[in-house]
Automatic annotation (TrEMBL):
Chain ranges of the External alternative NADH-ubiquinone oxidoreductase-like C-terminal domain: 469-528
An MF annotation (GO) of this entry: NADH dehydrogenase activity
GO cellular component, one term: mitochondrion
Name of the protein in its database record: FAD/NAD(P)-binding domain-containing protein
Keyword Flavoprotein (UniProt): yes
Keyword entries, A-Z: FAD, Flavoprotein, NAD, Oxidoreductase
Domain of life: Eukaryota
Record-annotated FAD/NAD(P)-binding domain positions: 39-351
Amino acid sequence: MAALRTGPSLYALPSRIYAGQRRNITIKQLEAAKNDRERVVVLGSGWAGYNLARSLNPKKFQTVVVSPRSYFVFTPLLASTSVGTLEFRTALEPVRSHRSKYEYIQGRADAVDFGKKEIMVRETVRDPNQGLLNTRAGEVRDERPLEMRIEASRGELFPLSYDKLVIGVGSYSQTFGIPGVKENAFFLKDVQDARKIRNKLLSSFETAALPTTPVALKKQLLNFAIVGGGPTGIEFSGELRDIVREDLARLYPHLIEHVQITVYDVADKILPMFEAKLGEYAMQHIGHEGVQIKTKHHIKELRRGFPQVDGQGDLNHDVKASGFTLSLQNGETSEVGCGFVVWSTGLMSNPFVEKALSPSFTAPASSVRLLENINASPTSSADWRIQKHARTGSVITDDFLRVQLDPGDHHDDKPAAVLRDVFALGDCAIVDGTQYPATAQVASQKAKWLAKKLNKGTTDIRPFSFASQGVMAYIGRWNAIVQMNQGSLSGRAAWIMWRGAYLTKSISWRNRILIPVYWMINATFGRDISRF
């Protein structure tokens, strides 16, 4: 009997494809595969790190991406995914793929030795924070005993050398130290945050629909607060308004009268990055659609559980704990019960930047260049400190994106300098003397600029300069506002431009196909309101 014919062995796959999908590479294998290439270690898989890694020449550089997150998030679509307008997959790009020309290690940098040109990496494959890098959205520690046990066993620590280091670790959501915000607020920085918001929204409606839920509690369950009047907060309020009016109103018609969406901001206006007429248009449109805008409101506290109001009756512990109390101050202090609070008030320094990049260090004189004479090295290699922005804590770079240094303790006579082979991009960094916004647009342009310069070997010719492509924001009910150098636009035409821009900016053809497909499916059949 003839032997069965089989397909080609997995081991016969082209080495390029196998190398691209390899998951268990060791440090020894990395060294063996390096050959005569320089190793570029990229910390982070966000807009800066992911775009840089994809753009570096693999013949010239051995690129190694180190990130606890094994995927890139297309952040402008998170608000849409949080309410089911799009599915979560459409906002993700895997860091690993058969086309990738770089290596990936799932871990986070714990420390850097600039003298040895080495970072210490802690593996995070079993990290329960996967997908929630920046928040503990809406959870309290008592609810996650299994995760706490896993957290007690930290991942293995190992060294990784570099020839060039690119720091693109991003930033965390700014909570201003307000009590309860970090523990109880919902953020919108990652796809898992969007999933939690969708689940909480639907659970609030289901709880309010129960025959045992009193009217006073229904109003609190269906009161949704957004803190922050920037593009993220306003776009989420628009998406939330859409799912409530277009989908949930059909499924819970008796509850819609109790729904309230409110945007709070400490400033005296929303969307300050837009020109006045666009901001006013947004205010009027949002108000007309039933979303309240409350400016000049300070948040004092966010705690778990509803405030007691007349008509609630006796509530069991689970129902009490299902909501939140927002303490506000606007002349006088008041308390508001909410189904959830989405927090979008800006950014704060990443703990890696705050801790690992704070101590003074020694670096070889050959790795340091003086700012006053970029071709000269200092006479001493000791006591340098990473230069940081006084207010934000961001790493300060020169306009070639090299990390700037200040003299360490007791060396005030030394001039400022830069690390020639260490760069910083994205939300964790700021170019000295500029006020570029901490946006995906800036991070992406920095990454592409640096990749081009490294590939050409001309990192000290023609400094980086940000070219704004405009700003845009969705404001609900198929309306948007767009501001560009060529002019501004508002209304339905701006909404079409907004959708078109995000569709064309999507990285993979898979998502460029999936996004319009989901738009069409949801327009025809309604949004998916499954809880899973």
